[in-house]
Recover the amino acids of this structure.
C-alpha cells in the first residue's frame, strides 16, 4: 500500500484550521531563511502557504550571507526574534549557508525549547528524549502518524534505520526508539554493501533519511517490508527519495517521494506551533 | 582473555609522562566539580593523581550547589575558566547536581572544542563525528585502544550497543561507528527482554554503557563474544559493571569492572589534554 501523504496532511490541515479558528489569536511562526538556496526558499514557501491556509501568521526573515557573516551575528539576530512575545514558534531553515554550516548546532541552540517548532535544539531534543515534552521532532511525528493510521505495531519488529545519526531524521528517530526501548539497526551510506544488504533484507521496517537518490533498491528489501522514505534529494529539479519507487510493488507499506513524508512533515510543524502557542498563551 | 585495563593505562601513562617531560610547559587541566557527590569526588581524585604522576597541572574548582544555584551562574563561572590562557583543557565532572541536571547540555557546551578534554560539547562531538578533529570522546579512545591492542577487526562483525543514546558512552560510540559506516544494533534497558536476548545472542561484539549492575548475564551472550563493559554503578561501595563477571569464562575478550575500561578512560583524558595543549601552544 502506498501512503497518501498529501491526503493525511490535508486531514491534519483541516483539524489545525478548526483549532485556530476557535482561538482568540492566530499563532505566529517566524522562519529564518539565511542565504539563497533555491530548495530552501521553496520549502519555506510551502510552509508559508500551509500556514496561511490554516490561519496562522508566518513571518519570514530572509537574511543574506553578507548581513550575517558569522554565526555570532546570526545568533544575535535569532535571539532578538526569540524575545518578541508575539512569536509562538521559530524555525531556522536548514541547511545554513556553507560559511555558517559548521555552526549549525549553536545556531539551532539559540532557539529555546519553548519556541522550537522543529524540536532540533539540544534542549528540545533532550526534553523529548527524556519524555518530558510532547513536542516531537517533525520526522518522529510523521513516522508515528503513518504507523498509527496504518495500524503498524512496531513492537517485536526488526527496524533498520538508514542514516541513523542524521540531524533531521536519523537522530530524532533513534532517540524516539531508544526512549521507548525499541531496538534498531543503524546503518548509513558508508556501511559496506554486504552488511547493508544483510541488515536491510532482514528488516521488517526500513526507515531512511539520507538524501541520496536510489540508495535502496527493491532487491535489497524483503517482501512485505514497511518502507518509510524520509530522504529527499533533487536531481534536475525532480524531487527524489532514498528508495527506488519499485519498492512499492513488494512493500506492505511504502511512502513515495514526493507525496509521502514531505507533506505530512509540514503539517507536523504547525501541529507543534499550535502546541507551543497553547502552552505559552493558554488554549482558547 | 581478560583485558588488563590497569596495565594498558600504565603504558599510556609512561608515554604521556615522557611527552610532557620533553615539553617546555606542563599542560594544565581544570576540573569543575559542582556539588558534593562522593563518587564524583573520587573520580576527580583519580584524575588528579594520574595528572600529577605524569607532570600535568590539575586544578580542581569545587563549587557548591549554593554558590551556583542556576546553570547561568555555573556557565559564567566556566566561561571565566575558559578565558584563562594558562588552561589547556577543561572537564566538567558529571553528573551535575540534581538541580542543574536538566541543563547538562548547555553547561557542557560552555566548554569550547579547543579546550574540551571530554569531547562532550556539541561542537566537539560534531567535529569528531565529521572526522574534522582527532580529539575523541574518551570512551571511543578506550574501545579503539582495546581493539587495537587485541587485534580486534570490527569490520563485518555484528555489534550490539547497549545504552546507545547515553551521553558518555553510547552516543559517542554510535557517532564513531556511524562516521566509519560500521553498523550496530542499538538496545537499552527498556528493550523487551526477548528482543534484547535475540540481539545480544547474535552479537560478535557487545558494548554496554548503561550503569546497571548485572544487566547482561552470561547466558545472554554467545561463546567467543568480545564484551566491553563501559558501564559502572556502585553498590555498597563496590564498583560494578553492566556485565556479569562470569561472561569472562565464555568471552574471547572481556573487560572487568573495576580494572577494565575505567583506568584507560583516565589515561585517554590526559592524551586529549596533551593533544589540545600541543594544538594551542605548539608541541615542543
Amino acid at each position: 500500500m502506498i501512503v497518501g501523504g498529501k491526503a493525511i496532511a490535508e486531514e491534519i490541515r483541516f483539524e489545525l484550521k478548526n483549532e485556530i479558528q476557535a482561538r482568540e489569536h492566530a499563532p505566529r511562526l517566524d522562519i529564518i531563511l539565511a542565504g539563497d538556496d533555491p530548495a530552501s526558499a521553496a520549502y519555506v514557501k510551502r510552509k508559508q502557504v500551509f500556514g496561511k491556509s490554516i490561519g496562522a501568521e508566518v513571518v519570514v526573515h530572509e537574511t543574506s550571507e553578507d548581513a550575517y557573516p558569522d554565526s555570532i551575528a546570526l545568533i544575535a539576530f535569532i535571539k532578538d526574534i526569540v524575545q518578541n512575545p508575539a512569536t509562538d514558534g521559530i524555525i531556522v531553515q536548514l541547511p545554513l549557508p556553507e560559511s555558517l554550516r559548521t555552526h549549525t548546532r549553536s545556531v539551532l541552540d539559540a532557539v529555546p525549547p519553548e519556541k522550537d517548532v522543529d524540536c532540533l535544539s539540544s534542549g528540545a531534543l533532550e526534553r523529548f528524549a527524556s519524555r518530558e515534552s510532547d513536542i516531537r521532532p517533525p520526522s518522529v511525528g510523521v513516522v508515528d502518524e503513518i504507523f498509527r493510521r496504518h495500524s503498524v505495531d512496531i513492537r517485536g519488529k526488526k527496524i533498520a534505520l538508514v542514516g541513523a545519526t542524521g540531524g533531521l531524521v536519523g537522530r530524532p528517530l533513534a532517540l524516539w526508539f531508544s526512549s521507548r526501548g525499541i531496538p534498531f539497526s543503524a546503518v548509513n551510506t558508508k556501511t559496506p554493501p554486504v552488511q547493508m544488504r544483510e541488515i536491510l533484507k532482514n528488516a521488517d521496517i526500513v526507515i531512511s533519511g539520507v538524501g541520496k537518490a536510489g540508495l535502496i533498491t527493491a532487491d535489497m528489501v524483503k517482501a512485505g517490508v514497511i518502507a518509510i522514505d524520509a530522504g529527499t534529494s533533487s536531481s534536475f529539479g525532480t524531487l527524489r527519495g532514498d528508495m527506488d519507487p519499485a519498492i512499492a510493488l513488494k512493500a506492505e507499506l511504502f511512502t513515495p517521494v514526493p507525496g509521502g513524508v514531505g507533506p505530512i512533515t509540514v503539517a507536523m510543524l504547525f501541529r507543534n506551533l499550535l502546541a507551543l502557542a497553547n502552552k505559552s498563551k493558554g488554549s482558547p
Chain B has a mean pLDDT of 94. The CA atoms of residues 212 and 242 of chain B lie 5 Å apart.
